[in-house]
Design brief:
The chain is mainly beta. It has a single domain (8-485), classed as TonB-dependent receptor, beta-barrel domain (Maltoporin, Chain A). The chain has no helices and 29 strands. The strands form 5 sheets. The protein has a 21-stranded antiparallel beta sheet that branches. A two-stranded antiparallel sheet has the order 12-13. It is globular.
Length: 486
């Protein structure tokens, strides 16, 4: 959208590359590469100016080696580099944020199948993390230059993460099967070391050939923390790593599900319920204003969270019309002693309703049409209950201090859109070898839904009354894609 729509200029690109190579009878090499970039500028008259750019580059080299009839291995080397840069200007103030995470990973997995009723998996992995956290808010200087954030000049955070896992999948008889195992992560940051034992257990009870019950229990620890930098709906999350002050996030999840198939397993259905506890959650303290020299560890506060819900799923696998339906009803909350007067509040990305519908219809031998519909509840954010005017000083909101009575007390409008596409797939030959080529003609956001990206506060220049303005991205977008497989 180079000319801008509603004050927005947006461009993006994605590049994918996949190569598979047969080294020999027992060895295969798989190479994947992805690079994507998004950049958006928003200009509001007498209001907020906003720029965001983010992207990700990832590459994977995987070697599959067959060690025997019952044992094979996968060895992978993975590189991932993600960044997000954000700049806002409103009134006499501006704010900058940069967060990035670069990972280099090596891992080896083994799969051993001693019999048709048993599968044992084990593996080890190592990741070297590099984080680039930085943010600044300040008044626009009357003379001189504004402060800037340079990735190379940020105080980088380095850490190491190693993990070993083993699992055993056993079919005890025609009725009962279990999967049990554990994962042992070891994380180091400077002189601090964290290590845990994470058990996992899943049991499946077959009531008949088409019906089964499943129950599972999982413990997990997370050493990377994505921390929102404000209570507003702006995309201002910063990546931080565990250290001596920031404990790893720990979770325990319980799940129970009923699975039922129909028409010779051509229609799959399931209903699952889950409950999850989350300890050592991380947020910034109330009123935190981050400068380039701010020690981020000193402005954090810690709490707990919980999530529970029910998931429904239906999938059709036969005939000209195929597709699936998925709906999740859930609730996720957090509680922090130093936030919201110690009262529970909704998690920023709590989505009470999450609906997905996908359908594919085979028109002819070579032509198919598909449609995908998505709906979910808008993210939670904080709206002020009142305001105080300041004559000489202020915040990013037009020299006005806002009074916030409760945290995440409002919601963005619900997100929903419909995507459709027509694809033409044919088998052909290239240099005498068989290959496939595919043309895909698609429309993103068919009915041009103005989904909210964020909401910001401003003041009407004439009436001086407060206003909340929504910024939306990505209207209806046609596309043409060419895929080639050889």
């Amino acid at each position: 959208m180079p000319n801008g729509i509603n004050g927005i200029k947006y461009y993006l690109y994605d590049f994918n590359l996949k190569l598979n190579y047969e080294l020999g009878k027992n060895d295969h090499l798989f190479i994947n590469y992805f690079r994507g970039r998004d950049n958006c500028d928003y200009t509001g008259a007498n209001s907020l100016n906003f720029n965001i750019n983010f992207g990700n580059t990832t590459s994977t080299i995987r070697w599959n080696h067959l060690l025997g009839d019952k044992l094979f291995s996968n060895t992978s080397f993975i590189f991932n580099d993600y960044h997000l840069g954000l700049g806002t200007t409103q009134g006499a103030y501006y704010s900058l944020l940069y967060t990035g995470i670069k990972d280099v990973t090596g891992k080896t997995d083994f799969t051993y199948m001693p019999s048709s009723n048993r599968e044992v998996k084990a593996g080890i992995s190592y990741t070297y993390h590099t984080l680039f956290p930085g943010a600044v808010s300040a008044k626009i200087p009357k003379k001189g230059n504004r402060l800037d954030i340079n990735r190379d000049s940020l105080l980088q955070r380095y850490s190491n993460e190693m993990a070993f896992y083993i699992s055993d999948d056993i079919k005890l008889n025609g009725v009962l099967s279990i999967i049990y195992g554990l994962r042992i992560p070891v994380f180091t940051e400077k002189n601090k070391i964290y290590s845990f034992v994470e058990p996992r257990f899943t049991a499946k009870l077959s009531l008949n050939e088409l019906t089964s019950l499943k129950a599972s229990y999982t413990e997990m620890n997370q050493f990377m923390h994505l921390v929102p930098n404000s209570t507003a709906s702006l995309p201002t999350d910063i990546w931080l790593t565990s250290n001596a002050k920031i404990k790893p996030q720990a979770s325990k999840q319980y799940a129970l599900g009923l699975f039922k198939n129909f028409k010779n397993n051509n229609i799959e259905t399931s209903v699952e319920i889950y409950y999850k506890t989350m300890d050592n959650q991380v947020l910034f303290k109330e009123g935190t204003q981050i400068m380039l020299n701010t020690n981020l560890d000193d402005v954090l506060t810690f709490g707990n969270g919980k999530s529970y819900g029910m998931e429904f799923f239906v999938k059709k696998n036969f005939g000209k019309l195929n597709g699936w339906f998925s709906y999740t009803l859930s609730k996720t909350t957090q509680i922090f002693p130093e936030l919201n007067n110690g009262k529970e509040f909704p998690f920023t990305y709590d989505r009470r309703h999450n609906l997905s519908i996908s359908a594919i219809y085979q028109l002819t031998e070579h032509w198919t049409v598909s449609a995908d519909f998505t709906y979910y509840t808008g993210s939670a954010f904080t709206l002020p209950a009142g305001k105080v005017f300041a004559s000489d000083e202020g915040s990013l909101y037009d020299n006005i201090y806002y009074d916030y009575s409760s945290r995440n007390n409002a919601r963005l409008r619900a997100y929903h859109r419909l995507d459709v596409s027509f694809s033409n797939l044919k088998k052909t030959k290239m240099f005498g070898k068989p290959c496939e080529r595919e043309w895909v003609f698609g429309v993103y956001n068919l009915y041009n839904r103005q989904n909210p990206y964020f909401v910001y506060l401003t003041t009407d220049p004439i009436t001086k009354k407060p206003q909340a303005k929504q910024v939306s991205l990505l209207p209806i977008i046609p596309s043409i894609t060419f895929n080639f497989k050889f």
